[in-house]
Design a protein that fits this description.
Growth Hormone, Chain: A
Length: 435
């Protein structure tokens, strides 16, 4: 061996000290290893569920734009027609969501999602064909809205319950937050995209695109390995299972309190969305363009809030944080209600977005982690009913806005939210210990 070769070999052989330093450098976590925002997406099966959620909710958001434009422009529908079509989606949530929870607990949640996503795609395909053949009528759209709402009532309990089966308990907050973040991303991107595409490919083109979104969602869930339903000691009738679910909620102080904290914001605070046009026109005087910017501020806050929540690893005292976010939601609404400045209003609505979606993600997480596996579908279905009840809050807040003022009505609703939150925490102090 030559002298030169020997020197090269010697130089290529690290000293023990160098070897130890090199090993430390290689094992030291890098920047991205310290970021926990997307931890649950490392789980293959959850990743497929999350991708399917993106497709499904993109289709839903595009449907809201295309359907509304179809009713108003193509069918020359009135405001009443538009209201009937919109409410036709929400009504089935109250009627069928409890049965959707029972189905979710009785059968494989994966299979329930595949069937419901496929059915949603078929409904969209049905409307697209009616538009292409130029035979579509208002009653067709009302019927499709009822069918879509009914399918959604069976889809969501299965989807939420399946999340808890695909990730560990430690990653559940992250998974639920990322699920909410994906929904909010769709709320920001999909409606605008649909609005552009209506002018490019027509309403029927958007509906065919929706069919593709729902097909992608179904195919994504098919990538998750099939599992059977959770073993149960007895299998009664659906009515007996439904009663068992309601009895379970009544007998659990924690679950019943979490559901109260899920219902209260939707009745007292979320109706602020119905008043935003009034604030844009009469209080801030920013017109329709400013109205869109106000909605965007909420969406950006909601997206960043849920991504921030997803970044918190090993989160402790989730109950305390949930209450803090609810109070943030209420205080953001008070600030917005009292503002007469566009920039201050945008900041307030950003806070509203952070608080409302952060609390919602934590509330869902705590419901899933504190519910026994065989009851998760039914508990989630009761939670889903709250969205069908939201219009009940719109009516009194709208009446109060007419009787006093939009600012006073919104402030009163925010105050009721904060007072009810503190009352529930005083009534159930164990909520502060939830982890």
């Amino acid at each position: 061996m030559s002298k030169q070769t020997g020197l090269q070999d010697y130089a290529a052989t690290p000293s023990p000290e160098a070897s130890g330093a090199e090993r430390a450098r290689r094992t030291r976590p890098g920047f991205w290893a310290k970021i926990h925002t997307f931890d649950s997406l490392k789980e293959r099966n959850y990743r497929w569920l999350w991708l399917g959620m993106l497709g499904s909710f993109a289709g839903m958001q595009m449907q809201m734009v295309a359907r509304g434009w179809l009713v108003v422009d193509r069918l020359d529908g009135s405001a009443l027609d538009l209201g009937i079509v919109t409410s036709s989606t929400g009504a089935p949530l109250l009627l069928f969501s409890l049965f959707g929870g029972v189905i979710s607990d009785r059968f494989s949640k994966r299979n329930v999602l595949i069937v419901t996503q496929s059915c949603t795609g078929l409904v969209a395909l049905f409307v697209a064909i009616l538009i292409v053949t130029d035979v579509v009528q208002i009653w067709h759209i009302i019927l499709s809205s009822v069918l879509s709402g009914t399918i959604f009532a069976f889809n969501m309990p299965g989807r939420q319950g399946l999340i808890s089966e695909l990730v560990s308990r430690d990653n559940l907050t992250n998974a639920v937050a990322l699920n909410s973040a994906g929904m909010n991303l769709n709320r920001i991107v999909a409606p605008g995209l649909a609005g552009v595409l209506v002018g490019v490919v027509g309403i029927e083109g958007v509906y065919f695109l929706m069919v593709g979104c729902y097909a992608f969602a179904a195919l994504s869930v098919m990538m998750i390995p099939a599992t059977g339903p959770i073993p149960r000691r007895e299998r009664g009738s659906m009515i007996e299972d439904l009663k068992a679910g309601l009895s379970y909620v009544r007998s659990s102080p924690v679950i019943s309190s979490l559901l109260i904290l899920a219902f209260a914001p939707l009745i007292f605070a979320q109706p602020y969305q119905a008043l935003l046009p009034l604030f844009a026109k009469d209080v801030l005087d920013v017109g329709s363009g400013g109205f869109g910017v106000l909605i965007g501020a909420v969406g950006v806050g909601a997206l960043l809030g849920t991504l921030g929540l997803a970044s918190l690893s090993n989160l402790r005292r989730r109950g305390v944080l949930m209450v803090a976010l609810l109070m943030t939601f209420g205080m953001g609404l008070v600030l917005f209600a009292q503002s007469t400045s566009l920039y201050l209003s945008l900041g307030a609505l950003f806070i509203v977005g952070v608080g409302s979606m952060g609390y919602s993600a934590l509330n869902q997480t705590l419901l899933l982690t504190n519910t026994t596996p065989e009851m998760r579908g039914r508990v989630t279905s009761i939670y889903l009913m709250s969205f069908g009840l939201m219009p009940l809050g719109v009516l009194p807040m709208g009446a109060a806005a007419d009787a006093i003022s939009p600012s006073a009505a919104l402030t009163m609703g925010a105050a009721l939210l904060m007072v009810s939150t503190l009352a529930v925490m005083a009534w159930r102090p164990q909520l502060r210990q939830l982890r």
